[in-house]
Design brief:
The complex is a heterodimer of chains A (about 400) and B (about 190).
Chain A lengths: L1 E3 L2 E9 L2 E4 L11 E6 L10 E7 L14 H23 L3 E2 L5 E2 L12 E2 L2 E3 L4 H9 L4 E9 L11 E10 L3 H20 L3 E4 L9 E4 L5 E4 H9 L9 H10 L10 H17 L6 E7 L8 E2 L2 E12 L2 E8 L4 H17 L9 H10 L3 E7 H9 L16
Parallel strand pairs in A: 6-10, 14-15
Antiparallel strand pairs in A: 1-2, 2-3, 2-5, 4-5, 7-9, 8-9, 10-11, 11-19, 12-13, 15-17, 16-17, 17-18, 18-19
Helix pairs in contact in A: 1-3, 1-9, 2-8, 3-9, 4-6, 5-6, 7-8
Chain B lengths: L1 E2 L8 E4 L2 E11 L7 E8 L5 E7 L3 E4 L2 E12 L2 E6 L5 E5 L15 E7 L2 E6 L3 E9 L12 E6 L4 E5 L7 E5 L4 E6 L3
Antiparallel strand pairs in B: 1-6, 2-3, 2-6, 3-4, 4-5, 7-8, 7-10, 8-9, 10-11, 12-13, 12-15, 13-14, 15-16
The chains are: A alpha+beta (about 400), B mainly beta (about 190).
Chain lengths: ~400, ~190
C-alpha cells in the first residue's frame, strides 16, 4: 500500500465477482478508482482483474454497484460477456446490428401473447415485423439484441421484460440459421464456462450430475417423430381438433372435450415430449411443426400440413424459435385476420394488423430465414441459474 | 374471484365445494401455446393434494376460510371446547377432527382452528407437546439394550411407549402427528 497525501492507494483483486482486498483489508470495493489494469494474460471480465483504488482511509459507503451480492455481480459480468461474444459472432458473419423501435402501433398478433400498452401504442413482443421490413428494404444479414415485453408472463423461465437476440438471413434457408444457432450457443457457453457441457438439473430430471452438450452438430428430430415416439400421438397437422383430442385420449393424455387444436397438441407435448427432451444429453433442433402451429413460417413445399419452423432446446429449456419466413402477403394477411378472429373469440385484446409489414411483403421480401433466441435463458444455461430472476439486472420483484 | 396472477402459496380457493390451499405453483408457457399455471392444491378438509393446470384467464373462487389461534379449554362428552384469546369467543369441535392426538391435549394448549363458512372444520395441534409421566412400571434391570420400550401413562391419561429409563415425574416430548415419544426433556 502506498500513501498519496492523506489518501491511500490499495490494490483490489476481483476474482469471479469476488472482491478481495490484497493490500489493505479496510478497503472496500467501490472506493474511488484511480486506475485499473487487467492482469497480463488474463482477460476481462477477468478471472483476475487488478484495480487500484484511492480514497480516504476507512471510507464510508460508496457506489451501489460494488456492494451488489456476489452472485448478482457475477451474473452481470456473465451477461456482459455473453453480449460481447454474441456481437463478435455476428460481426464475423458480416451481419449489420440494427435497432428497431420498441414502441409500435401493431404488436405481434400471436394468439397466446399479450402486448403491454404504452404511449398510445404497444411495446413489442418481438422485433420481427420491423426487422422483416428491413429485409424487404434490401438488408441481407441483420441482427438485433433488444428488450421485448409480454404481459402476464412471469415464472422461472419468463419475465414480462426480457432480452431477445433476433437475426435474419435473406436468401438463406433454415439450415443456415441452425448453423448460426449451434455456433453462437456453443461459443457463448464455451466462453463463459470453458466447456460446452452444461450441467442439467431441476424439475423432471434425475437429481444427479448429467450434462447437455451444446457442441455442434445438435440432434435433429421432427415434431411428428417426437410426438409419435414419446407421446404415442400421430400428429398429422390436417386433422380437425376433435380428432386430435381423440388421439391424445387414446394415448392416455387427459384433454378437455372441446379443446382447441393447439391446446390438445400442447397437452400431449408438455406431458410427454418435453420431459423426454429434458433428458437428452445433447441440444435438440425440433423441426417441421404442424401447420396449425406455423405462426409466421412458410408451409413446407410439397407438404402443406407442416411448416418450415424449428425450436431449439437445450437441457429441456426452449431457447429459440425460427421460421423460414412467410413471404406471401395474401397468406400473411389471411393469417393475421385469423389471429384477430381467434383473439376476439377468446376475449383477448385485438391488435391492428401491421399494414406496413404487409406492404413490405407485397413489394417483395426475398426468401429469408430468421430466429428469435432468448438471451436471458442462454445466460441461465451458461451460469446454471435455476430462475431467470437470477440473471436479470433487476427482476420484477426487485423494482 | 382470483385469476392466475393472484396464485401464490397459501391462497385459499373453493373447488367443487371444498376449500383448498395453494401449496405450489409454476407458470408454464410453451413458445406458441397457451399459458397456464401448474398448481398444487391441498384440500383443507381431507389433506388430499391435487394438481391442476389453471389457464390464464380462468377464474378461481375464493374460499371463505379463516385460521384462528385458539386455546384448548376442556373436553365435554365427545367434544372439545376452544377459546379465542382475542375476543374470548368459545367454539365446540367434535373430537373426531383431531384423531388419536386428542388424548395428548392438556388444558390451555395453543392450537389453530380452521373455519370454513364460519364452521370449525379442522384443528392443528403444535407438532410437539410436553407431558409429565404419571405412571410407569420401573424398567427391568439388565434389559437396557436397543429399542426396548415400556408403556407409560402421561398426565392427560394417554398411554405412550417410552424407553426403559423413563420414570414417573419425568417430562417427555411427544410428536402429535404420530403420538410417539421423541425424547426426555429437563424440567424447566
Amino acid at each position: 500500500m502506498e500513501s498519496v497525501g492523506d489518501r491511500h492507494l490499495a490494490t483490489i483483486r476481483f476474482e469471479r465477482g469476488d472482491a478481495e482486498v490484497l493490500a489493505d483489508p479496510a478497503w472496500q470495493p467501490g472506493d474511488l478508482i484511480v486506475e485499473h489494469e487487467p492482469v497480463p494474460g488474463e482477460g476481462y471480465p477477468g478471472y483476475a482483474l487488478v484495480r487500484r483504488y484511492a480514497g480516504p482511509p476507512y471510507p464510508g459507503p460508496s457506489t451501489e454497484v460494488a456492494r451488489l451480492p456476489r452472485p448478482r455481480l457475477r451474473a452481470l459480468q456473465q451477461r456482459a460477456k455473453a453480449l460481447a461474444v454474441t456481437r463478435a459472432y455476428f460481426a464475423e458473419q458480416d451481419f449489420l446490428e440494427v435497432e428497431t423501435p420498441l414502441l409500435v402501433r401493431s404488436p405481434g398478433l400471436e394468439i397466446h401473447l399479450d402486448a403491454v400498452p404504452a404511449g398510445g401504442g404497444f411495446l413489442i413482443t418481438s422485433p420481427e415485423y420491423q426487422m422483416k421490413r428491413l429485409l424487404a428494404g434490401g438488408l441481407e444479414r441483420i441482427f438485433q439484441i433488444c428488450k421485448c415485453f409480454r404481459g402476464n408472463e412471469h415464472g422461472p423461465h419468463h419475465s414480462g421484460e426480457f432480452t431477445m437476440i433476433e437475426w435474419y438471413r435473406a436468401g438463406a434457408s433454415l439450415d443456415a440459421i441452425i448453423a448460426d444457432t449451434e455456433q453462437l450457443v456453443a461459443r457463448v457457453v464455451r466462453e463463459l464456462t470453458g466447456t460446452t457441457q452444461i450441467p442439467v438439473s431441476g424439475e423432471g430430471r434425475v437429481w444427479e450430475t448429467f450434462t447437455c452438450d451444446v457442441a455442434p452438430p445438435w440432434l435433429r428430430m421432427t415434431v411428428r417423430e417426437a410426438m409419435q415416439r414419446w407421446a404415442g400421438v400421430d400428429v398429422h397437422g390436417a386433422e380437425p381438433a376433435a380428432e386430435l383430442v381423440a388421439k391424445c385420449r387414446a394415448a392416455g393424455i387427459p384433454v378437455d372435450d372441446h379443446a382447441a387444436w393447439d391446446d390438445a397438441f400442447f397437452a400431449a407435448f408438455l406431458a410427454r415430449v418435453e420431459p423426454q427432451i429434458a433428458q437428452l444429453d445433447r441440444a435438440l433442433i425440433l423441426h417441421d411443426w404442424p401447420a396449425p402451429l406455423a405462426a409466421l413460417a412458410r408451409r413446407t413445399p410439397g407438404d402443406p400440413h407442416t411448416a418450415l419452423r424449428f425450436e431449439a432446446y437445450v437441457g429441456g429449456l426452449e431457447l429459440a424459435n425460427a421460421f423460414d419466413e412467410l413471404v406471401d402477403p395474401a397468406e400473411q394477411r389471411a393469417r393475421f385476420e385469423d389471429d384477430q378472429r381467434i383473439r376476439r373469440e377468446r376475449g383477448r385484446a385485438v391488435y391492428p394488423i401491421d399494414d406496413k409489414l404487409i406492404a413490405a411483403l407485397a413489394e417483395g421480401l426475398p426468401p429469408s430465414a430468421g430466429i428469435a433466441l432468448g438471451f436471458d435463458r442462454l445466460v441461465m444455461l451458461a451460469t446454471g441459474a435455476a430462475s431467470i430472476d437470477q440473471v436479470l439486472t433487476f427482476s420484477e420483484s426487485e423494482l | 374471484m382470483y385469476d392466475t396472477s393472484d396464485i401464490r402459496k397459501g391462497l385459499k380457493v373453493l373447488m367443487d365445494g371444498n376449500p383448498y390451499n395453494v401449496i405450489e405453483f409454476q407458470f408454464v408457457k410453451p413458445g406458441k401455446g397457451a399459458a397456464f399455471t401448474r398448481t398444487k392444491f391441498k384440500n383443507l378438509l381431507t389433506g388430499a393434494v391435487v394438481e391442476r393446470n389453471i389457464r390464464s384467464g380462468e377464474k378461481l373462487e375464493p374460499a371463505n376460510v379463516d385460521q384462528r389461534d385458539m386455546q384448548f379449554l376442556y373436553k365435554e362428552a365427545g367434544d372439545l371446547v376452544f377459546m379465542d384469546q382475542t375476543n374470548y369467543e368459545q367454539v365446540t369441535v367434535s373430537a373426531d377432527l383431531i384423531g388419536d392426538a386428542v388424548d395428548l391435549m392438556k388444558d390451555n394448549l395453543p392450537v389453530t382452528v380452521l373455519f370454513f363458512n364460519e364452521r370449525p372444520v379442522d384443528v392443528s395441534l403444535p407438532t410437539f407437546v410436553f407431558l409429565e409421566i404419571t405412571a410407569s412400571e420401573p424398567g427391568v434391570k439388565g434389559d437396557t439394550s436397543g429399542n426396548v420400550q415400556k408403556p407409560a401413562t402421561v398426565e392427560t391419561g394417554a398411554t405412550v411407549n417410552v424407553p426403559l429409563f423413563i420414570r414417573v415425574g419425568d417430562t417427555i416430548k411427544i410428536d402429535t402427528r404420530t403420538c410417539e415419544y421423541v425424547e426426555r426433556v429437563n424440567k424447566q
